[in-house]
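Quick log. Single chain, no ligands specified.
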Amino acid sequence: MRIPALVAVLALLLLPLTGATSAAAAGGPSVKLSKSQAGTGGSITVSGSGWRPHALLMMLICGQATPARGVIGGTNSCANADGRAVTTDAKGVFSKKLPVSEPPVPCPCVVHVATVTGASASADTVFKVAGHAVEPLPAEPSTGRLSVLSDTRLDGSSGLLTWFGAPPSRTLVFTVGNAGSSPVKNPVFQVGTSHGVFAPQWDDQQYSGTIAPGGKAEIKLPVELSAGAHGDYTVSMKYGGRVLAEQPWGVGRPWGVTLFWILVCVVVPAAVFRIGMAVVDRLRPRKAARSMGPPRHRALHMPTQVTLRMPKLGKAAASQEAVAPTTSTLPWFTPDSDPGTAAGRLSAPHDDSPTSPTTPTRKGLT
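-> predicted structure:
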């Protein structure tokens, strides 16, 4: 009878612990500390469960924060220089030591653990930095309270100019509702973009309109990065000192800029080379090249016409020479063997005696 009673008592004692564990698992990521208080220079062991498998997390000690209100001043209220990064295992569990350092603002303090990449998730647990100043948190405004009712999204797309390095721009769209008892007029939101583990740079943007108690409104806020930005960015929206939404943004590399510099590296040297060759060709001393003397081999210039002159045979020969046309002969023919001279003969060879019947008379020549 004693054994069943003892088992029942142990079951009643372990039931709250089991319920708490189930609630923590159902509630999402959780964080536990090896010490609830430590001084500067020491260290604590931070462990967590319920996180996304193989997720990269950042652990920070932040001031002016509570688990209920979160980190009011954002990561600017944390000891960022002494933060530590940790990666969860396949079950979403991690454990790592964190050095204790004083945050830049007074306590109450928390150990803040948040995801660096992927879907946004965070968890806070109370921690006291021994010897650090403690001040009360600023009172929450008694006016209306805004909360995000829908998932945030980024509308818009990149154009051709963005491909050549123009600043990428999007529109952050989300829906908020007024959970307070008074209307919210012209609320001012803070929009910031961060790259990697760096803290976002906040920019105030005002929404023109009034959100009545229990009402809701769709908010559209422009977001723009610097020229040539590329990589993984995170767009955050903050209102009333609290971060209400975060949206990842993957920006492609501006390949047009890379193509431009490749063309510059190819075209400019080619143009300089062409200009230099034109200048050298223009300034080259041409007269010096002409005064270097005759070439080694000269071409043989043949006479265009060669005139063969026959010996004079009195006035008849002179007259015949005047009438006969000039003929050109090749250089290897002699005057006697030139075929053209035979055509110039009047008759067969004979004696030029006065009694010869073929000898022309002076009267006939005249």
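The CA atoms of residues 77 and 104 lie 6 Å apart.
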